[in-house]
Amino acid sequence: MAITRTDFTGATQAANAPEVLAWLQANAAEYFDTITADENGNVSCKIGETTVLLLGFDGNTSSQMTLINGTSITHYEKNDRFTYAIKTSNGVYLNSYNFGSVFITKSDKGTTAIAWNIKAGSDFYGYTFADFTHSSTFYAPVTGTWDASRNGWTHSAPLTALTPAVFNGGCYAPSLFITTLSEYTLIKCIFSIDGTEYASDGVLALKD
């Protein structure tokens, strides 16, 4: 399939919430067992009985990732929203208004995996990786300020070299890559290598 992009028009969290919910229900159902929202618009994506991805939209609820074993990590910012979403053959990508984008795909074990440059403190960021089922902990090897958390991953180069994202638990993502060496460093774009398209936030790239 061709990569498709959907722009969200809601300029507030309250307006953004139903757009994101409807888009996830239409485009990410293969990655979660249920995708629902509460009366305040907060979106819960579950695998089994575990809310593995919680997206807060009411200004009071923190977004959160939680592994099947109960280990979780919380997004420090409570007032974020999403400006657009991208669907590829191998996953989805939500672009954040303020902070890091959320990538959802499958690991080589066939289970749902995530990568998110989450804000884990007042000025502490880090691309954070996990297979919800097979990872016992989150993997976030490069952390620090917003700039440091991004610059540590990718370097400008005359050609683009892709490194598969890896997760704790002995698994990796066949279709989600780190643009280790890149012609498009830190540029949000869709690029092509040998006829295959990738949707990128400038650091990670999701294969179509």
Task: Give an overview of the whole structure.
- With 208 residues, the protein is mainly β.
- It has one domain (4-207).
- 10% of the residues lie in helices and 47% in strands.
- It is built from two helices and 18 strands.
- It has helices at residues 13-27, 146-151; strands spanning 4-7, 34-37, 43-47, 50-55, 64-66, 72-74, 82-88, 91-96, 102-106, 112-121, 124-131, 143-144, 155-156, 161-167, 171-182, 189-193, 196-200, 204-207.
- It is globular, with a radius of gyration of 16 Å.
Write the layout of secondary structure elements.
Elements: E1 4-7, H1 13-27, E2 34-37, E3 43-47, E4 50-55, E5 64-66, E6 72-74, E7 82-88, E8 91-96, E9 102-106, E10 112-121, E11 124-131, E12 143-144, H2 146-151, E13 155-156, E14 161-167, E15 171-182, E16 189-193, E17 196-200, E18 204-207
Parallel strand pairs: 13-15
Antiparallel strand pairs: 1-7, 2-3, 3-4, 4-5, 5-6, 7-8, 8-9, 9-10, 10-11, 11-12, 14-15, 15-18, 16-17, 17-18
Short description:
This protein is mainly β. It has helices spanning 13-27, 146-151; strands spanning 4-7, 34-37, 43-47, 50-55, 64-66, 72-74, 82-88, 91-96, 102-106, 112-121, 124-131, 143-144, 155-156, 161-167, 171-182, 189-193, 196-200, 204-207. The chain has one domain.
